[in-house]
Amino acid sequence: MSSNVNFTQVALNGLPLPAPGERAVYHDFGGSQSVSGLEVRVTSTGVKTFSVFKRVAGGKPERVTIGKFPEVSIDQARKKAKAIIADLAAGVSPSETKREAKAQGMTLAEAVTRYIEEQTREDNGMHLKARTKADYLGMIQPSRATVKGKPTKGGLLRKLAKKPIRAITAGEIKAVNIENKAQRGERQAAYGMQVLRAVLGFYGVVLKDSPFDKKTPKAERVVIPKTQAADDAPVKALLSNLGTFWRGLSAMPQTPPATT
Q: Where is the Integrase DNA-binding domain positioned along the sequence (predicted)?
């Protein structure tokens, strides 16, 4: 749920709580001091958090957390929001700056674990779904022995899991991709590379001769197929002919009811 409200002490204290497990978002709007882009997110337990949700100049929309209300006052939140919005308008991403600082010495396993909690979906700004988080965490799981002593395959990115993300090389990525293709197939291998590319990009890791860069020679590149939408031609054909179908059905002689 998303609504507009002029942020005042009385208004924020009186915000209704959403249903259990859900989150409501209120935008600062309608007052002489309101700041466009400032919002407060309310959880079902009553936690109210100020944040800014705006697009970085030349980039994607980004949510930057400011702090919890009432520990952070409305005036403080508005002042911080203006500074954050100015940075975003200049193409500076506060979140990216923080992520790059965190990434120093961070292993891939640590990066994936943090990524699934910090990343948000582009369509609605909400966090990743539980199923997606589980999939990503599964990729960094090591191989384990079964009850019969046989080793499991482990996660798609297990061989890179303990390596610092800034030390991962293009050669290592290509080797993992080749192995995954042989053991798991093209589709699973592509999924692993898609996640790896997203995590490295999230933390601003720049690879030398990156296999994900289109400028890299094709022979040295890891090509991730685009997800194709399902063919909706049969559905469109059915919908376009529904009128004809119903007219034909109506023209059929009616079967008289059975008599007893």
A: 36-101
Other Cβ atoms less than 10 A from the Cβ of 180: the count is 22
Q: Report how far residue 127's alpha carbon sits from residue 61's, in angstroms, rounded to the nearest whole number.
A: 14
Q: What sign does the CA torsion over 115, 116, 121, 127 have?
A: negative
Nearest CA to 169 among 202, 205, 207?
A: 207
Counting every residue written for the chain, the total comes to 260
Do residues 99 and 111 lie in contact, with contact meaning Cβ atoms separated by under 8 Å? no
Query: Where does the pLDDT of residue 197 fall: very low under 50, low under 70, confident under 90, or very high at 90 and above?
Result: very high
Give the chain's largest Cα–Cα span. Answer: 85
173 to each of 110, 135, 150, 189, 215, how far by Cα in Å? 17, 19, 26, 11, 17
Question: What is the token pair recorded at 47?
Answer: 């936690």
* DSSP-derived 3-state class of residue 52: strand
Handedness of CA 9, 93, 62, 102 (dihedral sign): negative
Q: Which two three-digit tokens encode residue 236?
A: 């469109």
Task: Quote the CA–CA distance of 254 and 158 in Å, as a whole number.
Answer: 66
> What tens digit of pLDDT does each residue of 39-70 get?
999 999 999 999 999 988 888 888 899 999 99
Residues 6+ apart with CB under 8 A from 216: 170, 209, 210
Q: Who's near 201: CB < 8 A, 6+ residues apart?
A: none
- In the block, which residue shows the tokens 């948000």? 120
Eight-state DSSP code of residue 127: B
DSSP string, 79-113: HHHHHHHHHHHTT--HHHHHHHHHTTT-BHHHHHH
